[in-house]
Design brief:
The complex is a heterodimer of chains A (247) and B (370).
Chain A lengths: L6 E12 L2 E12 L3 E5 L6 H8 L7 E6 L2 E2 L4 H10 E4 L11 H11 L5 H14 L15 H12 L6 E5 L7 H16 L3 E5 L3 H7 L2 E6 L2 E6 L1 H6 L4 H10 L1
Parallel strand pairs in A: 3-8, 3-9, 6-7, 7-8
Antiparallel strand pairs in A: 1-2, 1-4, 4-5, 9-10
Helix pairs in contact in A: 3-4, 3-5, 4-5, 5-6
Chain B lengths: L27 H9 L4 H27 L20 H12 L8 H19 L4 H10 L1 H9 L14 H27 L4 H15 L3 H15 L8 H26 L3 H9 L4 H16 L1 H14 L11 H9 L8 H29 L4
The complex binds adenosine-5'-triphosphate and magnesium ion.
């Protein structure tokens, strides 16, 4: 696995404040191509904020974030090129309710990549097939179940053909019986070699697919390890306490 | 464990119970009466009071408007004393009420314009056309209709001082609505902009217009605008009034649209940004379509209000529908027909406004996604 050594996300000394609230404190992390990182930690620890900085949905004030060779600064050009490489899946799906499932997927390729309509639709259908929901292509998102909506959201995040996928608690808003279908899709992506950062509390899933697990608390990365060591012998008491609460 | 059909133990078969009719007193006419008109003592009392009122008021109204009314098509007042309405008055005045002093021999032009306008309205109401096509149609519509009525390009010019009646009211309202919706949207977007100058400018425009009655704006447009315009630049009165109406309506529509914009969650914008859409594409494809659908009922409400508000142009000397009604009622040859005039006026206003709100209701129902 020589590609494991190519860094695709490099974060150094990242600091972020919401007004006076220091939400991310001196974060350093490197993600290599094809790696799967799971981030966990208590509510309010800054997990969402951290991954939202990676495609600049949140702006950071200090430190350096380089994604796929482009540094994230205020430059619109850099932001656009990073967003092309990074797909994101949200907790509440956030599909566009006024567009059909297919239109949700074709909008960005048609307008940003100027892809011809027919080609955009073919690509979209192929993606929908990949998340096994192509039979619902012409429905409105509101007509789908939560699990189906989240799978569409994953397909939508893939529509610009990103190199990196970010997941922010993709199964937290789902009914229990729908969690599996979404995790299966993410597993499949992992299997296909996608670089992923996933905030989740599905520890079984983390154990299975993650190369590394990061534990965050109060804006810091407390601990970082491979799944086995992370679950069996955590270094910090804080991690242990957290694990004992959620497992 | 599997259940096979030839399992030794016999399964009980579930037979759903047949539906029984609901008790008589809870459905049908009796049920409705009980539930809605006589549900309590006070409600019963109010019902009787209302019935009494209707019994006293409706028969005289019907005999005045229909039974005792004069329907003759003669062109002079009926000399015999009357107990009912004299609709002859309306028939005689019908032309001025509809088109003002528009020359008789060119009457086919406003009639044709009216027919085209009516067809577009019907097409809109039937919802046979794609939304995009419909919007384009309405935007394009004022231009040919204006030339038809005004003249030019081969047609004889009809002076705008001769325009009037319902034609003028509808024209002012329709162009007011068509122009003020996009302007209002721009103002609303500007008000939420990050650029301080744009934002302050939009807030300034919206709030200063909303702080002033329409009458004042019409007055200013009609009387004061010419003073501020550079010498030699001459805009006619009708256009000035139309601009006043558009500005007034835009400010209100901007506030309606702003309400819709606020209903769009940040998550939608973030999701759109995360797939690489840029600011204006996000606004155009994600935010606006959803925001506008949220505010359709209030937008229609604004349109109805604007149509009624156009009756204020009478104060700057334009004789719109209400103005013509008033002028007709004061015609020395036809004195004493005020009631007929205003009943007819109310009826026409009601038909138009009611149709608009019914249309609003129908698209409101259609627009529930899922
Ligand atoms: N836009 C914002 N403005 C101000 N404070 C914010 C904002 N977004 C988040 N915060 C605060 O920053 C902290 C970290 O938020 P964040 O959403 O990153 O936490 P999280 O680890 O994802 O938590 P959860 O598990 O609940 O999703 C929280 O205390 C939150 O209240
Ligand atoms: Mg979060």
């Amino acid at each position: 696995m020589n590609q494991q050594n190519i860094p695709i996300i490099e974060i150094t000394n990242l600091n972020k404040w919401f007004d006076n609230f220091h939400v991310l404190k001196n974060i350093n992390m490197t993600v290599h191509k094809g790696e799967i990182i799971v981030i966990c930690g208590p509510s309010g620890s800054g997990k969402s904020t951290l991954i939202r900085c990676i495609n600049r949905i949140e702006e950071h004030q200090k430190g350096k974030i380089i994604v796929a060779g482009t540094e994230l600064t205020g430059k619109m050009k850099n932001i656009a090129s990073v967003r092309k490489e990074v797909g994101m899946v949200f907790q509440d799906f956030d599909l566009f309710p006024h567009l059909t499932v297919l239109e949700n997927l074709t909008l960005a390729p048609a307008w940003i990549l100027k892809m011809p309509r027919k080609k955009a639709e073919e690509t979209a259908m192929a993606l929908l097939k990949r998340v096994q929901i192509h039979d619902q292509a012409f429905k409105m998102p509101g007509q789908l179940s939560g699990g189906q909506q989240q799978r569409v959201a994953i397909a939508r995040a893939l529509c610009m053909n990103p190199k990196i996928m970010l997941f922010d608690e993709p199964t937290s808003a789902l009914d229990p019986e729908m969690v599996k279908e979404v995790l299966d899709v993410i597993r499949q992506l992992a299997h296909d070699g996608m670089t992923m950062i996933c905030v989740t509390h599905e520890m079984g899933f983390a154990k299975q697919v993650a190369n590394r697990i990061l534990f965050m608390d109060q804006g810091e990365i407390v601990e970082e390890n491979n799944p086995e060591t992370f679950f069996t012998s955590p270094k910090y008491d804080r991690t242990q306490k957290f694990l004992s609460q959620i497992i | 464990m599997t259940i096979s059909p030839d399992a030794s133990k016999e399964l009980h078969v579930f037979k759903p119970m047949p539906d029984l009719p609901a008790p008589l007193e809870s459905v049908g006419i009796i049920g409705w009466l009980k539930g809605n008109l006589f549900s309590s003592k006070i409600n019963s009392l109010l019902t009787f009071a209302a019935l009494l009122f209707l019994w006293k008021a409706v028969p005289p109204l019907i005999s005045w408007t229909i039974i005792d009314a004069t329907w003759s098509l003669s062109s002079t007042p009926d000399p015999t004393p009357k107990t009912g309405a004299c609709w002859t008055f309306i028939f005689v005045k019908f032309r001025v009420l509809m088109v003002g002093l528009y020359p008789q021999e060119l009457l086919w032009r406003p009639i044709l314009a009216f027919v085209i306008f009516g067809v577009v309205c019907v097409l809109t109401a039937l919802r046979r056309l794609q939304t995009r096509l419909l919007i384009a149609l309405w935007f394009f519509l004022p231009l040919p209709l204006f030339f038809l009525i005004n003249g030019g390009i081969g047609l004889e010019i009809v002076e705008q001082s001769l325009w009037g009646g319902l034609m003028l009211s509808t024209g002012l309202a329709a162009i007011g609505i068509i122009m003020s919706i996009p302007l209002g949207i721009l103002l609303a977007l500007g008000r939420r902009s990050n650029m301080v100058i744009v934002k302050s400018l939009c807030i300034g425009i919206i709030e200063s217009i909303r702080g002033v009655p329409l009458i004042t704006i019409l007055f200013m447009a009609s009387v004061m605008l010419p003073i501020f315009l550079p010498r030699g630049m001459n805009i006619n009165n009708l256009l000035r009034v139309q601009i006043g109406i558009i500005l007034f309506s835009s400010a209100y529509i901007a506030e309606v649209v702003r309400g819709g914009l606020q209903a769009i969650s940040q998550g939608q914008i973030e999701a759109a940004a995360s797939i690489g859409l840029k600011n204006w594409t996000i606004t155009y494809f994600i935010v606006l379509p959803q925001a506008l659908r949220h505010v359709i009922p209030s937008l229609i409400g604004r349109c109805v209000a604007l149509f009624k508000d156009t009756s204020l142009v009478i104060i700057v000397g334009l004789l719109d529908f209400l103005g013509m009604i008033k002028a007709s009622a004061q015609d020395p040859e036809w004195l004493g027909y005020d009631a007929e005039a205003y009943v007819f006026c109310a009826l026409i206003y009601w038909i138009i406004c009611f149709s608009m709100s019914q249309y609003g209701k129908s698209i409101e129902h259609r627009n529930q996604w899922s």
